[in-house]
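dude i think i finally got it to work??
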Amino acid sequence: MSALPLPLILRFARRELANRFAGSLSGALWTLFQPLLQLAVYAFVFVHVFKARIPGADAPGYVPFLVTALWPWTAFSEAILRSTTAIQDNAALIGKVALPREVLVVAVAGTSFVVHAMGFCAILLVMRLAGQPVNLWLLAPALALYLPLFALALGIAFACAAIQVFVRDLVQLLGQILPLLMFGAPIFYDRASLPAGVQGLLDLNPFTYYADAFRALLLGHGSLDWAHLGIMLVVAVAALAFGRWLFHRLDPHFEDFL
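look at this
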C-alpha cells in the first residue's frame, strides 16, 4: 500500500474545517469556546448536583478526572462517526475526479483530532490557571498518546467508511455502539469504584488504557503501565493495518454502490 499524498490530505482537511465552521459567527474560535462551555456544564452537574467524588485521599477533583479522559474520547468517537460517511458524502466527487479515496477518510478523521486536541490544551490550561493540579510539564507526552489513538480511530474509520458504502445504516448502528464503549471505559468513573471481578473486564475496551495513561501523566492518578502502552501500540497498528486492507479490498466496488 503506497503512502498517501500529504498536500492532498491537507487540502481536504482545510475544506473539512471550512465546512465545519461555515455559518458560525465565532468561526474557529468555537474550538476554544465549546470545551470551556462544556467544562462549566460538567462542573455544575457532576460536582454540584450529583456530588461526584473520586475515591482515595489523594484523588484529583472530579472535573479534571473527567476532562483528561472525556476529551480524548470525544476526538476518538467523533473521528470515527464523521469518517464513516466520508466516501458516501463525496460520491459526486469520486465519480468525477481520480484520487486516492483514503484521503477523504484521513482528512475527516485528522480534522476531528486536531480540533479536539486544541480544545483539550485550552481546557487543561484553564484548569491549571484555576488552581487544579494539572501537570502541564507532561502535556507533550500526553499529546503523544493522541498518535496511537488516532491510528486506532483511523483503522476503524477506514473499515467503517468502506462498509458504509454497502450498508447505509452502519453509521446509525455506530451511534448506539460508541456510547456503550464510552460507558464501558473508566471515563466517568474510577475503576477502583467497581468490584474487583469487574475491573478486569474494562481492559477489554481499548480506550481504557488511554484513559488510565492520560490521568497518570496529567494528574498523577495511578501509574503509567508500560505493558499497557505496548498493548495500545499493538492494537492501534493492527487496527490501522486491517482497516486500510479492508478499505483497499472494497475500494474497486465503491462506484457501483454510490
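The radius of gyration is 19 Å.
im so relieved honestly
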